[in-house]
Amino acid sequence: MSFSTTFTTLELNAFNDVVYRAAFEDEYKTAVAAGAAVNRTQVDILGYSAGSVNVQTAIVAASEAAAQAAALSVVDNTSAMSLALQATYGASVVSEPVVALVQSPPPPPPPPTGALASSTNGAAVTGVSMVTLAMLLMGAAMLF
């Protein structure tokens, strides 16, 4: 799922400080993960933009059901997420809509291609070049 959180009292230039930024990201990801009921490693900060400070956030789930559950948890727990961050970073508001994102499974391996695949019906041929194989077949044909 993806959403933005706006921190109304933060300045974007504060994130130029590497230590500040690392501390913010650690606390933010922890609060969002708790609010979404997901593992912290599933929370990604996609970027920051001005307008106070908008934090573009994504949580990637393994299934549509898990993504919808996380989206509902974020909507239900925005107050708790805000309170966890408010003492250090000020008031925040999670934007709507909270959109569910599902992790795509890896693509299947590509099928064999070229002359090797068609001449061997997909069977593996190792240690023999196609030229050598063709010459062997021609030689065998001349014997018969």
Task: Describe the overall structure.
The structure is a single chain. The chain has two domains: 2-102, Alpha-Beta Plaits (2-Layer Sandwich), CATH 3.30.70; 114-143, no CATH class. Strand 2 (43-50) and strand 3 form a beta hairpin. Strands 1, 2, 3, 4 and 5 form a five-stranded mixed β-sheet that branches. The protein has helices spanning 18-36, 64-76, 78-89, 114-119, 130-143; strands at residues 2-7, 43-50, 53-61, 92-94, 101-102. Helix content is 44%, strand content 19%.
Per-chain topology:
Elements: E1 2-7, H1 18-36, E2 43-50, E3 53-61, H2 64-76, H3 78-89, E4 92-94, E5 101-102, H4 114-119, H5 130-143
Parallel strand pairs: 3-5
Antiparallel strand pairs: 1-3, 1-4, 2-3
Summary, kept brief:
This protein has 144 residues and is α+β, with helices and mostly antiparallel strands. It is built from five helices and five strands.
Low-pLDDT windows of residues: 115-120, 122-144
Percent helix, as a range, is 40-55%
Quickly give the CATH architecture of the largest domain. 2-Layer Sandwich
Large-scale geometry: globular
Notable traits:
Alpha-Beta Plaits, disordered C terminus, 19% strand, 144 residues, globular, five-stranded mixed β-sheet
